[in-house]
Amino acid sequence: LPQLGPHLPPQLTQQPWYLQYSTRRDGFSLQTLYRSRGQPGSPALLLIRDTEAQAFGAFSSTAIRCSSGFYGTGETFLFSFSPELKVFRWTGRNNFFVKGDVNLLMVGGGSGRFGLWLDGDLHRGGSQRCETFDNETLSPREEFCIQDLELWGLA
Length: 155
Hints:
Strand content: 35-45%
Shape: globular
Number of domains: 1
Order of helices and strands: EHHEEEEEEEEE
Low-confidence stretches: none
Number of strands: 10
Largest sheet: 10 strands, antiparallel
Distance between the termini: 15 Å
Protein backbone atom coordinates (compact mmCIF):
# COMPACT_ATOMS: atom_id res chain seq x y z
CA LEU A 1 0.00 0.00 0.00
CA PRO A 2 2.71 2.59 0.79
CA GLN A 3 4.03 2.46 -2.79
CA LEU A 4 0.61 3.50 -4.09
CA GLY A 5 0.39 6.52 -1.77
CA PRO A 6 1.91 9.06 -4.19
CA HIS A 7 -0.54 7.94 -6.92
CA LEU A 8 -3.70 8.39 -4.86
CA PRO A 9 -5.73 11.61 -4.96
CA PRO A 10 -4.00 14.12 -2.63
CA GLN A 11 -6.89 14.24 -0.15
CA LEU A 12 -6.47 10.50 0.53
CA THR A 13 -2.75 10.24 1.18
CA GLN A 14 -2.99 10.85 4.94
CA GLN A 15 -6.16 8.79 5.47
CA PRO A 16 -6.10 5.48 7.37
CA TRP A 17 -7.08 2.42 5.29
CA TYR A 18 -8.59 -0.78 6.63
CA LEU A 19 -9.16 -4.25 5.20
CA GLN A 20 -12.85 -4.48 4.22
CA TYR A 21 -12.76 -7.85 2.51
CA SER A 22 -10.21 -10.61 2.07
CA THR A 23 -10.60 -13.99 0.36
CA ARG A 24 -8.52 -15.57 3.16
CA ARG A 25 -10.84 -14.28 5.87
CA ASP A 26 -14.19 -14.00 4.07
CA GLY A 27 -14.09 -16.70 1.36
CA PHE A 28 -14.23 -16.38 -2.42
CA SER A 29 -17.44 -14.55 -3.37
CA LEU A 30 -18.11 -11.39 -5.32
CA GLN A 31 -21.47 -11.05 -3.49
CA THR A 32 -19.68 -11.02 -0.13
CA LEU A 33 -17.23 -8.44 -1.46
CA TYR A 34 -20.15 -6.17 -2.49
CA ARG A 35 -21.75 -6.56 0.95
CA SER A 36 -18.53 -5.65 2.71
CA ARG A 37 -18.26 -2.26 1.07
CA GLY A 38 -17.42 0.78 3.11
CA GLN A 39 -19.02 4.22 3.17
CA PRO A 40 -20.98 5.01 -0.02
CA GLY A 41 -18.86 7.29 -2.14
CA SER A 42 -15.74 6.23 -0.29
CA PRO A 43 -12.83 5.05 -2.46
CA ALA A 44 -11.68 1.44 -2.67
CA LEU A 45 -8.39 -0.27 -3.36
CA LEU A 46 -8.50 -3.75 -4.88
CA LEU A 47 -5.33 -5.84 -4.49
CA ILE A 48 -5.00 -9.17 -6.31
CA ARG A 49 -2.31 -11.84 -6.27
CA ASP A 50 -2.63 -14.50 -8.94
CA THR A 51 -1.41 -18.10 -8.72
CA GLU A 52 1.82 -17.06 -10.49
CA ALA A 53 2.53 -14.64 -7.59
CA GLN A 54 1.94 -11.57 -9.76
CA ALA A 55 0.40 -8.65 -7.80
CA PHE A 56 -1.86 -6.03 -9.39
CA GLY A 57 -5.15 -4.29 -8.91
CA ALA A 58 -7.27 -1.18 -9.19
CA PHE A 59 -8.03 2.00 -7.32
CA SER A 60 -11.67 3.06 -7.56
CA SER A 61 -12.61 6.61 -6.60
CA THR A 62 -15.96 5.29 -5.33
CA ALA A 63 -17.08 2.21 -3.35
CA ILE A 64 -17.23 -0.99 -5.41
CA ARG A 65 -20.85 -2.05 -5.76
CA CYS A 66 -23.36 -3.85 -7.95
CA SER A 67 -24.54 -1.56 -10.77
CA SER A 68 -26.47 -1.55 -14.02
CA GLY A 69 -23.92 0.68 -15.72
CA PHE A 70 -20.38 1.96 -15.35
CA TYR A 71 -19.62 4.37 -12.51
CA GLY A 72 -16.58 6.13 -11.06
CA THR A 73 -14.40 9.08 -11.99
CA GLY A 74 -11.16 9.84 -13.81
CA GLU A 75 -9.27 9.34 -10.52
CA THR A 76 -9.75 5.58 -10.99
CA PHE A 77 -6.63 3.72 -12.17
CA LEU A 78 -5.14 0.25 -12.69
CA PHE A 79 -1.72 -0.83 -11.44
CA SER A 80 0.67 -3.77 -11.44
CA PHE A 81 3.87 -4.68 -9.62
CA SER A 82 5.96 -6.42 -12.27
CA PRO A 83 8.41 -6.20 -10.53
CA GLU A 84 8.20 -2.44 -9.96
CA LEU A 85 5.00 -0.43 -9.67
CA LYS A 86 3.35 0.66 -12.92
CA VAL A 87 0.25 2.85 -12.81
CA PHE A 88 -2.21 3.18 -15.72
CA ARG A 89 -4.31 6.34 -15.54
CA TRP A 90 -7.48 7.42 -17.33
CA THR A 91 -6.92 8.28 -21.00
CA GLY A 92 -10.11 10.37 -21.30
CA ARG A 93 -11.29 8.22 -24.25
CA ASN A 94 -14.34 6.82 -22.41
CA ASN A 95 -15.93 6.66 -18.96
CA PHE A 96 -15.89 2.88 -18.50
CA PHE A 97 -14.40 2.99 -15.01
CA VAL A 98 -16.10 0.31 -12.87
CA LYS A 99 -19.13 -1.93 -13.41
CA GLY A 100 -20.21 -4.80 -11.23
CA ASP A 101 -23.01 -7.34 -11.51
CA VAL A 102 -23.59 -10.66 -9.73
CA ASN A 103 -21.32 -12.62 -12.08
CA LEU A 104 -18.65 -10.11 -13.09
CA LEU A 105 -16.69 -7.11 -11.84
CA MET A 106 -15.06 -5.00 -14.56
CA VAL A 107 -12.60 -2.11 -14.35
CA GLY A 108 -11.87 -0.25 -17.58
CA GLY A 109 -13.28 -1.17 -20.96
CA GLY A 110 -13.90 -0.39 -24.59
CA SER A 111 -14.37 -2.49 -27.75
CA GLY A 112 -15.30 -5.55 -25.69
CA ARG A 113 -11.98 -5.60 -23.79
CA PHE A 114 -11.61 -5.03 -20.06
CA GLY A 115 -8.58 -3.68 -18.23
CA LEU A 116 -9.45 -6.00 -15.36
CA TRP A 117 -12.34 -8.40 -14.84
CA LEU A 118 -13.14 -10.87 -12.05
CA ASP A 119 -15.73 -13.64 -12.11
CA GLY A 120 -18.54 -14.11 -9.59
CA ASP A 121 -16.76 -16.66 -7.41
CA LEU A 122 -13.49 -14.67 -7.54
CA HIS A 123 -11.53 -17.68 -8.77
CA ARG A 124 -10.78 -16.40 -12.25
CA GLY A 125 -10.09 -13.07 -13.83
CA GLY A 126 -8.52 -11.45 -16.82
CA SER A 127 -6.76 -8.37 -18.07
CA GLN A 128 -6.47 -6.85 -21.53
CA ARG A 129 -5.32 -3.52 -22.89
CA CYS A 130 -8.39 -1.26 -22.82
CA GLU A 131 -9.27 2.21 -24.07
CA THR A 132 -10.09 3.57 -20.62
CA PHE A 133 -6.53 3.21 -19.28
CA ASP A 134 -4.40 2.10 -22.27
CA ASN A 135 -2.90 -0.37 -19.79
CA GLU A 136 -0.58 -3.28 -20.30
CA THR A 137 -1.96 -6.72 -19.43
CA LEU A 138 -1.72 -6.68 -15.63
CA SER A 139 -0.89 -10.36 -15.20
CA PRO A 140 1.49 -12.55 -17.25
CA ARG A 141 -1.53 -14.16 -18.95
CA GLU A 142 -4.73 -12.57 -20.28
CA GLU A 143 -6.68 -14.94 -18.02
CA PHE A 144 -5.47 -15.76 -14.54
CA CYS A 145 -6.47 -17.66 -11.40
CA ILE A 146 -6.80 -15.65 -8.21
CA GLN A 147 -4.82 -16.78 -5.17
CA ASP A 148 -5.64 -13.85 -2.84
CA LEU A 149 -7.81 -10.80 -3.17
CA GLU A 150 -8.17 -7.89 -0.75
CA LEU A 151 -10.46 -4.87 -0.79
CA TRP A 152 -9.26 -1.90 1.26
CA GLY A 153 -11.41 1.08 2.20
CA LEU A 154 -11.03 4.26 4.17
CA ALA A 155 -11.52 3.89 7.92
